[in-house]
UniProtKB/TrEMBL annotation:
<keyword id="KW-0472">Membrane</keyword>
<keyword id="KW-1133">Transmembrane helix</keyword>
<dbReference type="InterPro" id="IPR032816">
    <property type="entry name" value="VTT_dom"/>
</dbReference>
<dbReference type="GO" id="GO:0005886">
    <property type="term" value="C:plasma membrane"/>
</dbReference>
<protein>
    <submittedName>
        <fullName>Membrane protein DedA with SNARE-associated domain</fullName>
    </submittedName>
</protein>
<keyword id="KW-1003">Cell membrane</keyword>
<feature type="domain" description="VTT">
    <location>
        <begin position="30"/>
        <end position="160"/>
    </location>
</feature>
<feature type="transmembrane region" description="Helical">
    <location>
        <begin position="47"/>
        <end position="69"/>
    </location>
</feature>
<feature type="transmembrane region" description="Helical">
    <location>
        <begin position="172"/>
        <end position="193"/>
    </location>
</feature>
<feature type="transmembrane region" description="Helical">
    <location>
        <begin position="7"/>
        <end position="27"/>
    </location>
</feature>
<keyword id="KW-0812">Transmembrane</keyword>
<dbReference type="Pfam" id="PF09335">
    <property type="entry name" value="VTT_dom"/>
</dbReference>
<feature type="transmembrane region" description="Helical">
    <location>
        <begin position="140"/>
        <end position="160"/>
    </location>
</feature>
<dbReference type="InterPro" id="IPR051311">
    <property type="entry name" value="DedA_domain"/>
</dbReference>
Length: 202
């Protein structure tokens, strides 16, 4: 995973950073925790513009989140619940899981989007209930951009400040990111085999 990210950024520069952050939000196994620190390191070493890399990271992150918002908005709550009733076992979700999540989002919507953008995995998922529950697009963009800017900025700054130490860090980043992907797949398979989320009605 690390080699893929490093090669993409080397070839695409700031556009590569933006594209990876977009994909990271659409396909979570691509970790922003690798993309932005590496972009920060490259900026510190003078191989790319710090401003362009940072802005591209934020823009890519927000656009990726917007895709899931639109999916939620267009799909709708009732269609989602019917889907869960039919295929909840394969999604490892139940109707009760979804209804609890949406009720929670109704109580904490804007703060949920803001803080959710700083939590791995939740970063992607939080956009779906925002669309399902009809959060206004301007509000979604404001809170998503604010949360994403903080998250992307923190990761970018970490890579920028590491600079000379980054060569040491990258030696163990590749196996760690591979392990993360394995754990995500393993967690899904565990829920599937143990019957978590059989589509039961509340």
């Amino acid at each position: 995973m690390f080699d893929f990210i490093a090669n993409w950024i080397a070839a695409g520069g700031a556009l590569g950073v933006g594209a990876l952050m977009f994909l990271e939000n659409v396909f979570p196994p691509i970790p922003s925790e690798l993309v932005m620190p590496l972009a920060g390191y490259n900026a510190a070493s003078g191989t790319q513009s710090a401003v362009l890399a940072f802005v591209a990271g934020v823009v890519g992150s927000v656009l990726g989140a917007w895709i899931w918002y639109e999916i939620g908005r267009r799909f709708g709550r009732e269609r989602l619940l019917r889907l869960i009733d039919r295929h909840g076992r394969w999604l490892t979700l139940s109707r009760a899981d979804v209804e609890r999540t949406l009720a929670w989002f109704d109580r904490h919507g804007r703060l949920a989007v803001f803080f959710g953008r700083m939590v791995p995995t939740i970063r992607t998922l939080i956009s779906v209930p925002a669309g399902l529950q009809g959060m206004s697009l301007p509000a979604f963009f404001v809170y998503t951009t604010a949360g994403s800017t903080i998250w992307v900025g923190a990761l970018f700054a970490a890579g920028y400040l590491l600079e000379a130490q980054y060569e040491r860090v990258q030696a163990w980043l590749n196996p760690v990111t591979t392990l993360l992907v394995v754990l995500i797949v393993g967690a899904y398979l565990y829920r599937l085999v143990t019957g978590k989320g059989r589509g039961d009605r509340a």
